């Protein structure tokens, strides 16, 4: 992605290096734009190679002391951070809506789902426990300790600029690592505000660093010899590149990537609840969620519900995220608007039936915004662009199936495996779905089943690379190296049994 300089009056987004917010010396800048108005809110730098190296060097130096910081000290920083996030919720949500576009209540949800991970990080004392086996041989104990890796890095997408950075740095730092974050260059402002709060909460200088940029910054992270692990969330194309490049450089990598989430609607489901859930999950956040509902598979008699679903979608208000009552805000950029409208055109050209056309909605007072209203296609088939691509807009594709077996087979044939849901009143159907579906996050009458941090976010097939998820129990394993210690202590009364030349512990 290219950087360009257009508005030199706008405030600059800072880098965070060595505990200080610093102005970049780069010549490459990109505007951060309000997607409802096109107002330039700020300019974000594309950090220079020297700045990226300085951020990593500062994290490497800070690791020397941070790794030895007591558990309680680490935990209390996150207790304080959760308090500061709560106190600043309104400001954070407003910043997020301004630069990303989602509605204010949804922006609070974005911050809140990240806050849950901060709360979890405050429990690090009970999460980072090793095991101990007493007397594995005479007078010998074996125990494991989970030690931090060193400098870890995070690369985040534009669609959750609060939640996803908060998936990353709190757990990485709570487990004793230091961190370099590379937020999305499209909406870095709320992320930076969260980092300011993290400093205020007591994160020491160098433990958390932030660089900005695009492809070059990401490649520099993948290649840097002093970075031990990378957590990436974003598209499948970029995530696969990051996974391959960073793995070849010997790093531990987890990549949470793109999606095409399907829901099955059984004819026995509660119709009103189901239609509400479908509309909310397909069109909320203008479809810019990795867990957005993209495809609904109507089984049998449920195929007659299309007109009611269309009516439901028509009731949603399309406007700026700051306007009261808005359901669907703008797409993040003009480029995203062009891409989504182009895909709708291709859907029509390729023979899908356009049940509801959300293109070029009238949005009074926000005529320059990147708006697309709820859009519904029926008769969608594999091979059509609207089915094959992740649209990342408020576009729902409808397909039909005769029974649950056919529906499950259809979903499992799609390469993505991020989220899915079934709507039914039958426990047997729900259980069959849970068992046979090859998707990471499964909802039963829950359209967006993002797990709370007592569990780990996951994914299967093309939606995820790497074994361990970005929060929950799995991330403690991701950010630590297990060391086992086998120990025997002699006292004066220990009898010597001579030299042991075998592998056995005696
Ligand atoms: P993206 O892949 O374009 O960008 C993600 C990050 O990669 C950004 O920080 C960006 O600067 C960087 N980047 C972009 N192009 C690059 C390139 N060519 N080389 C190296 N780095 C590059 O993703 P996005 O558009 O910001 O976010 C939307 C995508 O993220 C969707 O595909 C969505 O499904 C996915 N997503 C997945 C999850 C999940 O948990 N599975 C969560 C949120 C978003």
From TrEMBL:
GO molecular-function term, one example from the UniProt record: oxidoreductase activity
Aldehyde dehydrogenase domain boundaries: 23-485
EC annotation from Swiss-Prot or TrEMBL: 1.2.1.27
InterPro entries: Ald_DH/histidinol_DH (IPR016161), Ald_DH_C (IPR016163), Ald_DH_CS_CYS (IPR016160), Ald_DH_N (IPR016162), Aldehyde_DH_dom (IPR015590), MeMal-semiAld_DH (IPR010061)
PROSITE patterns in the cross-refs: ALDEHYDE_DEHYDR_CYS
Gene3D superfamilies in alphabetical order: Aldehyde Dehydrogenase, Chain A, domain 1, Aldehyde Dehydrogenase, Chain A, domain 2
Alphabetically ordered keywords of this record: NAD, Oxidoreductase
PANTHER family the record matches: MALONATE-SEMIALDEHYDE DEHYDROGENASE, METHYLMALONATE-SEMIALDEHYDE DEHYDROGENASE [ACYLATING], MITOCHONDRIAL
Family named by the database record: Belongs to the aldehyde dehydrogenase family.
Protein name: methylmalonate-semialdehyde dehydrogenase (CoA acylating)
């Amino acid at each position: 992605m290219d950087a360009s300089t257009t508005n030199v009056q706008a405030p600059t987004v800072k880098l965070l290096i060595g505990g200080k917010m610093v102005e970049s010396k780069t010549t490459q800048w990109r505007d951060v734009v309000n997607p409802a108005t096109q107002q330039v809110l700020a300019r974000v730098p594309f950090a220079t190679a020297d700045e990226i190296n300085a951020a990593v060097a500062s994290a490497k130096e800070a690791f020397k002391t941070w790794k030895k910081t007591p558990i309680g000290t680490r935990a209390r920083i996150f207790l304080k951070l959760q308090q500061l996030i709560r106190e600043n919720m309104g400001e954070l949500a407003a910043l997020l809506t301004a630069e990303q576009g989602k509605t204010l209540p949804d922006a609070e949800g974005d911050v809140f789902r990240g806050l849950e991970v901060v709360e979890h990080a405050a429990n690090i004392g009970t999460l980072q426990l090793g095991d101990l086996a007493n007397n594995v041989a005479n007078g010998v104990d074996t125990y494991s300790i989970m030690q931090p890796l060193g400098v870890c890095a995070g690369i985040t997408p534009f669609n959750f600029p609060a939640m996803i950075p908060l998936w990353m740095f709190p757990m990485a730092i709570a487990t004793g690592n230091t961190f370099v974050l590379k937020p999305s260059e499209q909406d870095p402002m709320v992320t930076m505000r969260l980092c300011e709060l993290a400093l205020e909460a007591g994160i020491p200088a160098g433990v958390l660093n932030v660089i900005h940029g695009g492809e070059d910054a990401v490649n520099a992270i993948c290649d840097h010899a002093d970075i031990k692990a990378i957590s990436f969330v974003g598209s499948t194309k970029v995530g696969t590149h990051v996974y391959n490049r960073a793995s070849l450089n010997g790093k531990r990598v987890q990549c949470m990537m793109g999606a095409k989430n399907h829901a099955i609607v059984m004819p026995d489901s509660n119709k009103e609840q189901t239609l509400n859930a479908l509309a909310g999950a397909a069109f909320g956040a203008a479809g810019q969620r990795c867990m957005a509902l993209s495809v609904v598979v109507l089984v049998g008699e449920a195929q007659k519900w299309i007109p009611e679903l269309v009516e439901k979608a028509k009731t949603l208000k399309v406007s700026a995220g700051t306007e009261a009552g808005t359901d669907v805000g703008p797409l993040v950029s003009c480029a995203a608007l062009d891409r989504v409208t182009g895909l709708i055109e291709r859907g029509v050209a390729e023979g899908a039936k356009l049940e509801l056309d959300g293109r070029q909605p009238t949005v009074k007072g926000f005529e320059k915004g990147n708006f697309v209203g709820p859009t519904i296609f029926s008769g969608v088939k594999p091979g059509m662009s609207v089915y094959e691509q992740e649209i990342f807009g408020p576009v729902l594709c409808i397909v039909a199936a005769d029974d649950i077996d056919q529906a499950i087979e259809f979903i499992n044939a799609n390469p993505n495996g991020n989220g899915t849901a079934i709507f039914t009143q039958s426990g047997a159907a729900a259980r069959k779905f849970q068992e046979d579906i090859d998707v990471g996050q499964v909802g039963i009458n829950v359209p967006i089943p993002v797990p709370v941090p007592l569990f780990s976010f996951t994914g299967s097939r093309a939606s995820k690379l790497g074994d361990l998820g970005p929060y929950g129990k799995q991330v403690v394993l991701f950010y630590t190296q297990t060391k086992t210690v086998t120990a025997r202590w002699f006292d004066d009364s220990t009898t010597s049994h001579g030299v042991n030349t075998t592998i056995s512990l005696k």
